[in-house]
Each structure stands twice: as structure tokens, then as C-alpha cells.
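Field log, afternoon session.

UNIT: design team B
ACTIVITY: writing a sequence onto a fixed backbone
BACKBONE:
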């Protein structure tokens, strides 16, 4: 079994996830793009989901929160609050699927521009779980965490 496969199968701590994610997020411009685009992608996914199926989206959100709970209780709470804020934004701005999909596409274009500037490929090319670590990385930064430090 390759070292990469072993790493994927082992349970990583939040600190390990954030440390690995930070490797491809060192450039200040890329970081700022991610601080804007990751939350936009997150809320747009919720918006698209709510446009299609409220219950499915809420169940999926609960499963995502369970993933965060396994990593860190404060992260779970921060992401739970963020999801509630996203739901409030969607209630205040009841846009349809097409608007949320447009935000999703534009934010992803921003992400790839950031990685072009950084000169490194996105982390999720190595492990799809990094798609859930991106929001945790942003939350950690907003909660005062450093590059290698995580919400514990």
C-alpha cells in the first residue's frame, strides 16, 4: 500500500488536515481569494440544495457537521453557526437555483485563479475530503488560528 493510500485511510487530526491544506495556500492573494470564495461556494451549495430539496440539504448538512464534530467540537459549533448564517442569508435573499449555481461557478473560477497564482494544485486533487477542510481552514483563520494551529 502506498504512503498516500495509508495517509488517506488513517484518521487525521484537525491540525494535520489544516497543516496539509495550508501547504497549497501560502500566497497572500490565494489566501484572500479562498477566504472569499470558499464561503461563497459553501453557501451556494446550500442554496442550490435548498432550491431542489430542503430535507435532503438539511440531512446532508447534518452529515457534514458530524464530520466536523469528529475533528473538533469548537469547529463543529463554528460551522453550525455558519450554516445557520447561510440559511438566514438564503431566507433574506430567496434566489433560485440558477443564481446560486452562477455564484458556485464564479467562486470556483476564483479558486482556480488563486491556485494558478500560488503555483500549486488544489488539495482536493489529492483527497476529496479536502473539500470539507477548506471551510474548516477558513473558519480557523477567522477564529484567530495560525497556519499550523487549529481550533481545538
Amino acid at each position: 500500500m502506498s504512503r498516500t493510500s495509508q495517509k488517506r485511510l488513517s484518521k487525521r487530526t484537525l491540525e494535520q488536515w489544516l497543516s496539509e491544506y495550508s501547504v497549497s495556500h501560502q500566497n497572500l492573494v490565494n489566501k484572500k481569494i479562498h477566504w472569499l470564495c470558499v464561503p461563497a461556494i459553501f453557501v451556494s451549495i446550500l442554496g442550490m440544495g435548498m432550491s431542489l430539496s430542503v430535507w435532503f440539504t438539511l440531512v446532508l448538512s447534518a452529515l457534514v457537521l458530524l464530520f466536523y464534530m469528529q475533528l473538533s467540537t469548537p469547529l463543529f459549533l463554528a460551522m453550525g453557526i455558519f450554516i445557520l448564517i447561510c440559511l438566514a442569508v438564503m431566507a433574506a435573499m430567496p434566489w433560485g437555483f440558477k443564481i446560486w449555481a452562477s455564484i458556485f461557478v464564479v467562486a470556483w473560477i476564483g479558486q482556480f485563479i488563486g491556485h494558478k497564482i500560488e503555483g500549486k494544485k488544489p488539495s482536493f486533487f489529492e483527497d476529496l475530503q479536502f473539500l470539507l477542510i477548506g471551510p474548516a481552514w477558513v473558519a480557523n483563520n477567522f477564529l484567530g488560528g495560525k497556519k499550523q494551529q487549529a481550533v481545538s
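LOG NOTE: The chain has one domain: 25-138.
NEXT ACTIVITY: expression trials, pending approval
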